[in-house]
Amino acid sequence: VLELVHLLKTKQITFVNLTKIFLMRLKRYNHALEAVISYMEDLAYKQAKEAYCLLEQGVYLGFRHGIPYGLKDIISVPHYKTTWGSTTFKDQVLDIEAWVYKRLRSARAVLIVKLVTGSLAYDDIWFGGRTPNQWNFDELYLAAFAIGSETAGSMTYPAGRCGVTSLRPTFGTAGRSGVMSISESLDNKLGPFCRNVMDCAVVLDAVRGRDPDDLSSREILIEDPFSIDIRKLTVGYLEDADMEVVSTLYLLLLH
């Protein structure tokens, strides 16, 4: 994200061309990956042009400004389908603007696609097929990115298998209005899928906060990660944890 921000601000690439590159790439590979439910080209180009016009006027709204992203298709956007991955709801259009979409729209991020979710946010089967791990087509994992959700592993499992970074935030960090509800006691934690941890922090900072339509949401501040003394942290892990990760964390804490 930070590299793309630099390219946009220094005019090495235009907002519209960056959006076009991502849409073309998705279309090129989606026949194999089955990761996209809905392309949102009209909206994407409109938002890209608006983001550019603001920058030309001297208004810059932070690291999300002009950056393309996708939403898991349990998150509603007015005038576009929100299918929940289900055959029953594959033509459903909800006149609801989800909180996380409002926040990213306000930050002038550019929504380009709605991404696959398993039917009713469960497992890896949806009404159009099954979405594989892009590195190993014998593995069937949800291949979502950008803003996803988790009730019991829907972010951590695919991120771990597909080689990207996800951030499963504390319950209540991001408002859930406009998102398909699963369980009141163990419901969606909304968070980002990105290339790296810094990107996740940039995105989470945009979507966090008190959602007036979600009583469980809270105004949770994010500390500057570079101001934290990691040597004072305690790391807990289960017996079946990846010991390579545990060893890396141990070495970081020592130094």
TrEMBL record:
<dbReference type="InterPro" id="IPR036928">
    <property type="entry name" value="AS_sf"/>
</dbReference>
<feature type="domain" description="Amidase">
    <location>
        <begin position="18"/>
        <end position="119"/>
    </location>
</feature>
<feature type="domain" description="Amidase">
    <location>
        <begin position="142"/>
        <end position="243"/>
    </location>
</feature>
<dbReference type="Pfam" id="PF01425">
    <property type="entry name" value="Amidase"/>
</dbReference>
<dbReference type="InterPro" id="IPR000120">
    <property type="entry name" value="Amidase"/>
</dbReference>
<dbReference type="GO" id="GO:0050567">
    <property type="term" value="F:glutaminyl-tRNA synthase (glutamine-hydrolyzing) activity"/>
</dbReference>
<protein>
    <recommendedName>
        <fullName>Amidase domain-containing protein</fullName>
    </recommendedName>
</protein>
<dbReference type="InterPro" id="IPR023631">
    <property type="entry name" value="Amidase_dom"/>
</dbReference>
